[in-house]
Design a protein that fits this description.
This protein is of the alpha/beta class. The protein is built from nine helices and seven strands. The protein has a five-stranded parallel β-sheet, with helices on both faces. Helix 2 packs parallel to helix 3, helix 7 packs antiparallel against helix 8 and helix 8 crosses helix 9. The longest helix has 21 residues. It comes from Lentinula aciculospora. GO terms for molecular function: ATP binding. This is Chromatin associated protein KTI12.
C-alpha cells in the first residue's frame, strides 16, 4: 500500500492533477490495487472552503481529514489525499500515521503562481470558492515541501503550465508507490504488548513446581541426570531437563529461581514489543526456566 499527499496553494489546480494521477495509477495497477482519491470536499468529509476562514473551524476540519486518511490506509490500496496540506506539521502527522502501518510515501507539489490561483478562484462559484481574505491568508501561511525532510520525500513537483503531467513524472510516482522505501514505525511509538493479568501468578506457580520436582527427584538417588517435569495445568508434553551429576541444593535452586523471576517481572511490568513478545503460558514459562537452570547449574 502507499500514500500520496497532494499539496499546493488553494485553487492551484490540485484536484485536477489528483484526478489525472488517479486515472494513470488505475491503469498501471490494472486491478491489482485499489486507487482511492480522498478529497476534503468529498461527500464523506464535506469540508467547506469556509472552514479555513478561522482557526476554530480549521482545526476540526484537519482532524476529520486525518481520521479519514487513517481509516482508508489498507493493504493493496493507493491513497491519494487531495487537500491543501499547506502546514508542514500536518504533513508530518500524515507521515507518522502512514509510517505506523508501514506504507510507501510520496508527496506531489502542484506549483502554481499566486496570481494564477487568484484568477482561478474568481472563476469558482458558491461553496467551492475561497473568500479573498482566506485565499491571501492561506497563501501567506503556506509552507513549501522540501525533499530534504523525510515526511515530504520523495517529492514530485508539477508545474501548472503543463497541460498534462509528464510521463516521466507519472512513471516516477508509480515507482515510488511500488518500489519506494517502506519506513518502519519509530520504536517509541510501537504499540506495547502487555502481559496477561495472571502472568505473575503463572510465573510463581510454574517455577515453584519445577523447583519442587527437582528436589524430590534427588531424594535417595544422589542426583538425577535426566529429569521429566510436568506442569500443574499444562496439557502439552512433559519438559525434559538435564541435571549435573551432583545434588542440587535447595538454597542454590531458591537463589536461581529469584534471579529468573526478577528478570521476568521486568518484562511483565514494562510490556514487550512485537519482536520480543513473550509466551506467558505455563509451558512458555517452564521452558524458559528449564533452559535458565540448565545453563546456570552447568557452570
Amino acid at each position: 500500500m502507499s500514500l500520496i499527499t497532494i499539496t499546493g496553494y488553494p485553487a492551484s489546480g490540485k484536484s485536477s492533477r489528483a484526478r489525472e494521477l488517479k486515472a494513470f495509477l488505475e491503469t498501471k495497477a490494472a486491478g491489482s490495487k485499489v486507487v482511492i482519491l480522498l478529497s476534503e470536499t468529498s461527500h464523506s468529509l464535506d469540508i467547506k472552503r469556509s472552514a479555513y476562514d478561522n482557526s476554530a473551524a480549521e482545526k476540526p476540519a484537519r482532524g476529520a481529514l486525518l481520521t479519514a486518511i487513517i481509516r482508508l490506509l489498507s493493504p493493496n490500496t493507493i491513497l491519494i489525499v487531495d487537500a491543501p496540506n499547506y502546514i508542514k506539521g500536518f504533513r508530518y502527522q500524515i507521515y507518522c500515521a502512514a509510517r505506523e502501518v508501514k506504507v510507501r510515501l510520496a508527496t506531489v507539489y502542484v506549483l502554481t503562481p499566486q496570481e494564477q490561483c487568484r484568477a482561478w478562484n474568481k472563476l469558482r462559484e458558491g461553496d467551492d470558492r475561497y473568500s479573498d481574505d482566506t485565499l491571501e491568508n492561506l497563501c501567506l501561511r503556506y509552507e513549501e515541501p522540501s525533499s530534504m525532510v523525510r515526511w515530504d520525500s520523495p517529492l514530485f513537483t508539477l508545474l501548472w503550465s503543463d497541460e498534462v503531467i509528464p510521463q516521466t513524472t507519472l512513471n516516477a510516482i508509480w515507482d515510488a508507490t511500488e518500489k519506494g522505501k517502506v519506513t518502519n514505525p519509530n520504536s517509541g511509538t510501537v504499540a506495547v504488548m502487555k502481559a496477561p493479568t495472571d502472568a505473575l501468578a503463572t510465573l510463581e506457580k510454574t517455577t515453584l513446581s519445577i523447583m519442587q520436582q527437582i528436589m524430590l527427584s534427588q531424594d535417595g538417588f544422589g542426583g538425577a541426570v535426566t529429569l521429566t517435569l510436568t506442569l500443574p495445568a499444562s496439557t502439552s508434553s512433559p519438559l525434559k531437563m538435564t541435571l549435573p551429576p551432583r545434588n542440587v541444593t535447595l538454597p542454590e535452586l531458591s537463589r536461581l529461581k529469584r534471579q529468573f523471576v526478577t528478570a521476568q517481572k521486568k518484562a511483565i511490568t514494562l510490556g514487550t514489543v512485537e519482536r520480543g513478545s513473550v509466551d506467558w503460558s505455563e509451558e512458555g514459562v517452564g521452558k524458559r526456566f528449564v533452559v535458565f537452570l540448565e545453563e546456570q547449574l552447568q557452570r
